[in-house]
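Ticket reopened. Same input as before:
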Amino acid sequence: MRRLGLLLVAAAALLAPLAGAGAAEKFITVQSTTSTQNSGLFDHILPVFTGKTGIEVRVVAVGTGQAIKNAANGDGDVLFVHAKPAEEKFVASGGGVERFDVMYNDFVFVGPKADPARIAGGKDAVKALQTLAASGAPFASRGDDSGTHKKEKALWKAAGIDQGKASGGWYRETGSGMGATLNAAVGMGAYTMSDRATWISFKNKGDYAVVVEGDPILFNQYGVILVNPKKHPHVKAAEGQAFIDWLLSAEGQQAIAAYKINGQQLFYPNAKK
Amino acid sequence: MQLSPDRPARPAGTGGHVLPVRATGVTIRRGGRALLDGIDIGIEPGPLTVIMGPNGAGKSLLLRVLATLVRPDAGVVTWGGTMPDRGRAPQLGFVFQKPVMLRRSAIDNVRYALKAAGVPRGERDRRAAEALAAAGLERLAGSPARVLSGGEQQRLAIARALATGPEVLLLDEPTANLDPAATLAIETQVQAAHRAGTTVVFVTHDLGQARRLADDVAFVHHGRVAERTPAHRFFSAPSSEAATAFIEGRLIP
Amino acid sequence: MQDFGAAFGEAFRLLVSLDPDLVEIVALSLRVSLGAVLAAAAIGLPIGAALAVARFPGRGVALVALNSLMGLPPVVVGLLVYLALSRAGPLGPLGLLYTPAAMMIAQMILVVPIIAAVSRQTIEDMKEEYEEQLRVLGVGPSGMVATLLWDARFSLLTALLAGFGRAIAEVGAVIIVGGNINHVTRVMTTAIALETSKGDLALALGLGLILLGLAITVNAAVMLLRRTAGHAAFA
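Engineering reply: fixed in the latest deploy. New output:
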């Protein structure tokens, strides 16, 4: 019995700090997207907020679709994503309190510099997709119900192309995050659509470059929502609201605008005053 | 559950006699064949009994039945006139053809047996040391048992079986895998134990070994005891045809 | 591929500078996986020993199930643990989701079948050898289990090691239930996944090399232990 007892004591000693980590004093959990995480924005702005309020922000970065589902399950205090129609549905269903615009950036099409589909330099995203589809050049899609994926599907619809029929052919759904999809696209010489922030901070660009940008339809709005404490009583409403208020405040908005990589601004704050 | 073996497997001081060990009408069938066919045999206190017979006659199986390692399909085994029980197992020492060495030192192998027999902790060291000394293994007491030579391992197995002071020692062809020198050492060890008062049952198919050891011979053939005869008569004038043929070195049907 | 050279450089740089973030990540990986393996051993070893020693109806089915569970995809385990620990799930009120404890639970579930199956095999092999000897010594079933576990202890280390290998290298489950939260639930594998998705392949590979080094160290330590403990004699 003695040995087993020792084993149990050792196990308990090992586990105790882990259990404690689950109950740290003041923190909130934010369900967010890979684009904000991978771009490094959170690493830049969160220390400012935590330094001011003492509230630690724990970010779970998944696709927008999964982030919304997690938030609907009550697994998070704040939802910070980029798919306005889905966000509004989430609020309407009672899952969230209210949606606020926080910032935007835009989507870009990236592809190999050789540009086999001859779409480089265009400003019309819909037309570019039509040209691309006709050329048969491969296109890598997130295929993961993320905000970026939702946007991409809307663009195909606007172009009048049923890209799903080409799935497995020139249309390749990676079912992964933005970074993984960029890696896949570079690996197989496919075009893809990315949010600008992830693209700028992406380090495995190879010979890839932005081929289409600047179309107003490629606008990418981020919104923030407090998970509804009426539905999920454990939600840290005060701390979560403090984070939202700070994001929308002049200080938060400046912190977002100040984040740059290689001198390029990644996100443009646009909270309503 | 505990990981340490430091616990008696049964209460100390249980026991009672296992002799006479008796099989009555013991039958074992495998695949439609009777390997033991209604055997009756009794082991009384005293003599060194050798169980002989050709390969496949059922002598090893018979020994295992007597030790309750194999349950008969029909018939009964009794120890000291009653049904065998685990508490008396240490009274019946058993040595396998291939010695099973526990993964610990030589002396710890003996200590383990003493503990399993319920010998009080304070006595174990002394008795284990005595058992090793009797087997001429005191020099190897601290050696891991599994690195000993084949002959040393078998001597240790016998020392381990004898350490608990059993009434009877059953040995299943203990020298089958050993060279002549090691075989001689084993025979000497067994004879010493017998002289010290332990009843011995020794299975072998080696005629020379049987001549050297036996007071009494049980000849097993086709799953039956063909004859049971004092040694001096068995080797000169066996009563069964099968034993006669075996002694003369003829093939027996 | 120029990434290989860069990867070694990065790994070396991280190690030499004892990068505090790296130290934190490695420490958490070890704590989570060691905790998971210890917990899994407390459950898996008795299961393995019981399956090795006991004969009961349905044992064959249990063995098939156990062996199949060894191939359980981590993502499925992660999903099941997520569903259980989610605020909307049955264990939601415990508030364990996105904590190291949740990661440990997921890894433990992955490791229990491995430890149980490998120890079952180890103990059963030894039982084949020991059983009759122990019976003639008058050792009963519980004493037999204790003796088998004790005498097989060095071989059973291999079972724990196999479990640890699976736990420390696994990413699918911990990224779901841990959330890969910086400074809270980020471990080696989820950090590698993150750096890969950022396209920072050199850093990802560097972390991978450190993980490999860790695995080699642990394996070598266990092998050394088995050696010095008298491999020839006791194993």
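Residues 20 and 218 of chain A are 45 Å apart (CA to CA). Residues 1-8, 16-24 of chain A have pLDDT under 50 and may be disordered. Please confirm and we'll close it.
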